[in-house]
Amino acid sequence: MGVEKEKFGITKDGKDVYAYTLYNANGMRAKIINYGANLVSLLVPDADGNLEDVVLGYDTLEGYYGNGCFLGATIGPSANRIGGASFEINGKKYQIDVNDGENNLHSHMQNGYHKRLWDAEEGTDSVTLTIEGKDGDMGFPGNKKISMTYSLSDDNALKLSYHGTSDADTIINMTNHTYFNLSGHKAGKIEDHLLKLNASNYTPVVPGSIPTGEIAPVAGTPMDFTTMKPIGQDINADCEQLKIGQGYDHNFVIDNADGTLREIAEAKDPKSGRVLKVFTNLPGVQFYAGNCIEEEIGKENTVYGPRKGFCLETQYFPDNIHHSNFAQAVFGPGKDYDSVTIYQFV
Question: Which of 69, 154, 295, 310 lies at a C-alpha separation of 20 to 30 Å from 179?
């Protein structure tokens, strides 16, 4: 295990950006840049030991200046959607960026944490990135400090550990927006990948992908991944929820979530034999099948496009601030934000 550091580019205002590559005894390598705390590449062995980069991304820093689909991005301080791009905490209303119809998506397209330079500190098998947000930053209350540690172990587990503090009650709902293609980022569609979600329920949405507040069973619907099935098996079914998301783009309610680390998902690529298991202590996971990936040039001159990668974004439920029956992602004095997500290849 170890860490290699190299220069990745220079920001528009002349600051150096570095890449930190974590490696283990099996040849697995995870490259992270301190611009946006983005996961740039993830080399993983297949069943025969052949390495492929299994995440979508860009070869240069300039690619991440655009990154309208959030490839590899660390999203904060608030991931996913907030209805009406406003919320109340302790009786005070806060207005945030209107950037997704009338709603807010991922805090801010240009000023969110995925578009900022983080401080970085190397460990023996990890890199810890930190960022601060001032009271009122992007409309959110509280002076915040967020740290995120990527670490890689010899059992092929990439661990993402988050910690956040704020001097006033605020929303902290971090996630990582990596797109996986277990055949390799150049391999094309992911609809033949097999997926299992340990989620007997999900949160239905209205147009605009804002939850209704209902926690609905997946049984008997195309949303049922409680037993492993191909992602593409039901993705084009005649189902209102799938029409709203142009496919899967929904928050799934993790079974028996109680704040402890548990396995929540397993994905398998029949072609390469790669198997990804996901663990988290969070209550929800946004399964996004990449329905709206823009056609653009990614790494190695690869043309990315719809459904060429999928996301498993661990999180508090979207728009939880407006639904008292959802676990609340409000943190502040006396209540720090802590979460762990592990992507393990077995």
Answer: 154
